[in-house]
Amino acid sequence: MGKRIKNPDNKLGFGKLLLWQTSSVSVALSTLVLGFVTIYCTDTLGLEPVLVGTLFMVSKFVDGVTDVVAGFIIDRTQTRWGKGRPYEIFMVFLWLSTWLLFSCPVGFSTVAKCVWIFFMYVFMNAVCTTFLNGNNVVYMVRAFKSKEQQVKLTAYGSFFTMGAGLAFNIIFPMAMARIATSAAGWSRLIGMMAVPLTLLGLIRMLTIKEQYHSEEMTGTEKLRLSDIMALARINKPMMLVSAARFLQNAVAGMGVGVYYWTYIIGNVSLMGVTAIATVLGLPLAFLMPSMRRKMGMKKMVIYGFAFSALGYLLIFFAGGNMILVIVAGLITSIGVVPFTMMFNIFIVDCADYNEFKGIPRMEGTMGSLTGLAGKIGSAFGGFILGILMSLSGYDGTAAVQTDAALLMIRMLASIVPLIIFAVIILLLRKYSLDEEMQAVRNAAKEGEQS
User: Fold this and answer.
1) What does CATH list as the number for 15-211+224-445?
2) What digits encode the pLDDT tens for the residues 314-365?
3) What are the boundaries of each domain within the chain?
4) Which ranges in 225-287 belong to alpha helices (H)?
């Protein structure tokens, strides 16, 4: 049996991997910071949970417009810096708007506070995050030549993104308990993060060039608005992936963990302890490429969500038992690893499918649209949290919460995510891209042999 010939184009240097992940790490941490915006609004600014949730939900109407426009703009971009790379500059405005979001003057009236929060949240999500989501895959496929490189970059790179998220989840709750005890404290805490993470996020743009797919840079692939309109009809797998991302982000966007550790466990500063346990899931990053080859994206992700669902069931029975909550948190975090780590490969696969169907690849458009699905999901999660918490009688200014409010926090941290993940599994069972593309490859091989 002969040795497998290695293709030099599939090699991925460690240094380049680190440089590429700088932007992803910065964006990921800005997303994690948003998980604390609801408790900032309710407990520091004194806004009603239902009002906060409604503001975030309404902001998604703006997102719906900007995501479509941003994807279209990116896919039609032609500059000497490339197609996706120029939009990395939005990293500066992302962290500026994040800091301003958590710097609302506490003396403002309720209306003024709502206007401030709404516009900063919209600019952060509908403009900055939109362009950074939309350009990511476009940039990647033009900076790295082979599909194998792109898979390794997505999987191995996620190790560093998850590691940064782990550090954030350990450090931020402790810093929050110590520094963010007032409106000025929140502003100072986010400002301390914003400056270094802005600089970190710009490293990729300054060091990695776009150098492939030059035929698209010369304009042979012309994207029209009609192509975007046809995307939903032609590419059903992309719609299923977008729906799954919407629902998964709805769970993450509820941000109920900080409430759970504050009122059920009784010590929010210990919230980072659960993050320490998730370090056990980091090695999965190195297994993703081989798991993808053996199982396919569909099975790998479905099994992961089923595993997470078991973790959410355990949380309900754990109650205030911190050990069980930590174990359940580990299970839920490991289960979503395949979906979150390998999501960009879903977009690349769907772009290949577009090409097979005879329409432009539209990586930028699909990156923006799936990003929109995720952002709407996050806002929807916050909206659901606000509605149900308000109905339960939760009062952010009260020293002690009612039994109904405490039960609602437990439900939102366990049963609601369990139901949502069950729906995701049912949706992804209909995802057929793995089978369709394999059939195409088999047909091509048979044609070559004949």
Assistant:
1) 1.20.1250.20
2) 999 998 899 899 889 889 988 998 898 888 888 888 888 888 888 888 877 7
3) 15-211+224-445
4) 225-234, 236-253, 256-259, 272-277
